């Protein structure tokens, strides 16, 4: 039987982890072994559990304990606190209506190395300083759907386990292997050492079209996408093996990075995997 703990006040200290700790406090860089993240909605929580993430506590509407949360709770140790409250209490928590009535505080999994993440990978995405959690989540969803084997991120970008990012990803951040690129060495050299060629997505005239057969024939290819607005740094483009752009029409000069990722992943991931 689940350890049900009713909550009647939004100020209850048990809600701090869900309502009053910032994302940076949850990450807890000073003590990584105790770092946490919050998963929202039954789908995302279920995929986090599938990915081996360890639950610490739940917050949900009372009615869900024996409803849509029952299957998830049956997968967890019985002593995990399950804080419950009525909707009028929980809606004081900003954005609660987006959670499908359920939140879960989870232990942050230890990150693997780039070499571990890229073992057996043929198509990966590299995200350079992508800052918007919504874009991160959308990119991961496209990566999962369209044939990317892994995602690598620079440390300056947004965190895939931020609540908005994991929610927008529909939990695919727990399905697609990912890690951060090293800051003390050239990540291009790291990927080249692992056998990858790199393809920078950039708006330049001296680029290959996305459909160029040379890209499809590469046995290992990293698709490199840049930050919102400015795109990739010039030094990054110069160190990549290819520069690639998506053909545009009607005077449109570019796509949002999440939309561009979906087009690129379809062409370079899904089609390659069907070959």
Please outline what is shown here:
InterPro entries: Alpha/beta_knot_MTases, Ribosomal_eL30-like_sf, rRNA_Methyltransferase, SpoU_MeTrfase, tRNA_m1G_MTases_N. The protein has 275 residues and is of the alpha/beta class. It has helices spanning 16-19, 23-27, 42-50, 70-74, 87-90, 114-118, 133-145, 163-168, 187-193, 213-217, 234-239, 257-274, and strands at 3-6, 36-40, 54-61, 81-85, 102-107, 123-127, 150-153, 178-180, 197-201, 208-209, 221-225, 242-245.
Task: Describe what this molecule looks like in 3D.
The chain is of the alpha/beta class and 275 residues long. The chain has two domains: 3-107, 2-Layer Sandwich (60s Ribosomal Protein L30, Chain: A), CATH 3.30.1330; 114-274, 3-Layer(aba) Sandwich (Alpha/beta knot), CATH 3.40.1280.10. 32% of the residues lie in helices and 20% in strands. The protein is built from twelve helices and twelve strands. The protein has helices at residues 16-19, 23-27, 42-50, 70-74, 87-90, 114-118, 133-145, 163-168, 187-193, 213-217, 234-239, 257-274, and strands at 3-6, 36-40, 54-61, 81-85, 102-107, 123-127, 150-153, 178-180, 197-201, 208-209, 221-225, 242-245. It has a seven-stranded parallel sheet with strand order 8-7-6-11-9-12-10, sandwiched between helices. A five-stranded mixed sheet has the order 1-4-3-5-2. Helix 7 (133-145) runs parallel beside helix 12 (257-274). The longest helix has 18 residues, at 257-274. It is elongated, with a radius of gyration of 21 Å. The protein starts with a strand and ends with a helix. The model has no long low-confidence stretch (mean pLDDT 90). Residues 124-266 form the tRNA/rRNA methyltransferase SpoU type domain.
């Amino acid at each position: 039987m689940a350890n049900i703990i009713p909550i009647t006040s939004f100020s209850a200290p048990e809600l701090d982890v869900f309502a009053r700790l910032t994302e940076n406090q949850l990450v807890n860089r000073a003590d990584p072994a105790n770092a946490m993240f919050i998963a929202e909605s039954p789908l995302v929580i279920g995929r986090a559990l599938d990915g081996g993430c360890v639950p610490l506590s739940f917050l949900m509407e009372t009615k869900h304990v024996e409803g849509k949360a029952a299957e998830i709770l049956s997968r967890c140790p019985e002593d995990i606190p399950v804080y419950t409250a009525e909707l009028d209490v929980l809606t004081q928590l900003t954005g609660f209506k987006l959670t499908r009535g359920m939140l879960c505080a989870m232990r942050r999994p230890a990150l693997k190395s780039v070499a571990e993440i890229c073992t057996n990978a043929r198509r990966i995405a590299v995200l350079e300083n992508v800052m918007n959690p919504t874009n991160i989540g959308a990119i991961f969803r496209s990566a999962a759907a369209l044939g990317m084997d892994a995602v690598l991120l620079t440390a300056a970008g947004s965190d895939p386990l931020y609540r908005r990012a994991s929610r927008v990803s529909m939990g695919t951040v727990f399905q697609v292997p990912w890690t951060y690129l090293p800051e003390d060495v050239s990540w291009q050299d790291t990927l080249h050492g692992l056998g990858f060629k790199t393809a920078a997505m950039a708006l330049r005239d001296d680029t290959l079209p996305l459909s160029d057969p040379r890209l499809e024939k590469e046995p290992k290819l990293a698709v490199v996408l840049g930050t919102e607005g400015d795109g990739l740094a010039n030094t990054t483009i110069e160190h990549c093996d290819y520069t690639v752009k998506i053909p545009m029409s009607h005077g449109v000069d570019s796509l949002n990075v999440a939309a561009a990722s979906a087009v690129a992943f379809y062409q370079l991931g899904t089609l390659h995997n069907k070959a």
